[in-house]
Design a protein that fits this description.
Number of helices: 13
Strand content: 15-25%
Radius of gyration: 20 Å
Number of strands: 12
Length: 324
Amino acid sequence: MKRRNFITLLGAALTWPVTARAQQTVPVVGFVFSGTASSAAAPFVMAFKLGLEEVGYIEGQNVAVEYHFPGGNNERLPTLMAELIQRHVAAIVGDTSPAIAAKTATSTIPIVFLTGADPVSLGLVTSFNHPGGNATGVSFVNSRLDAKRLELLHELLPRATVIASLLDPAYPTSASQLKDLHDAAGALGLQIHVLQVSNESQIDQAFATFANLRPDALVVSASGFLGARRNQIIELAARNSLPAMYFDRQFPTAGGLASYGADVPDAIRQAGVYTGRILKGQRPAEMPVLQPTKFDLVINLKTAKALGLTIPDKLLAIADEVIE
């Protein structure tokens, strides 16, 4: 989807809630995703719509969706949630940080979350099987996969000994991510340098530091902010000829080397289904948290060639998608 068409799509979508509220017949859903309103977000929007359609809700006909993309700027979330509550939306859908902000702001409006963390430890639900409150959703444990990403990176570059890492300290599970990285590096006999970044300039500074550390490769931990800065990170990694393993397939799709993580668009589709079921009257407290079991390895061969890398046959054989 072209960027101009996607922005037009979002603009049209944002006009629906006004009409819906005036007619007081169409439920309004607040969709808050930590990325940015660009063509990269189009698969997420389309996946959510597909999920809604599976249970009979078609945007623009019998449901309206307000799309918000704060671009990893968590400071905007409390104000945004207050606005959605004031508009009396029927449900709020969001990834980790927006979901936490929504849970803090309301105990009555239904919340459908998508998180790579443990929703129990985040306080979103009481348990996976019996959420017990106004929130439920999909937990794809993406943030606990750093050890596996580091292992795959080691298989891809067996001679690499020094690994750099980007980690967002504002992400709710950053402490466990940091521990997982150090534990995995120790088990693999690797030296790891974790640089914590929470804004655009810190990412630039991190890569300037990498130039001095001269790491063999990079692993990027999951967070909404780092996902929103996808293009910046890919460009800097390419400029520094640094092979990188990411947490989301959108990175290799956009020119990064490789990723390992859950199928996020499918998780968002499932969130759309749950949202539709809530609009039909089902209570989040009685809807078990969904847990995808499939995780995808995606490799960009064009990027590998540009870096002068030969991907081992073993990895090519197990890859779920190879971009040529």
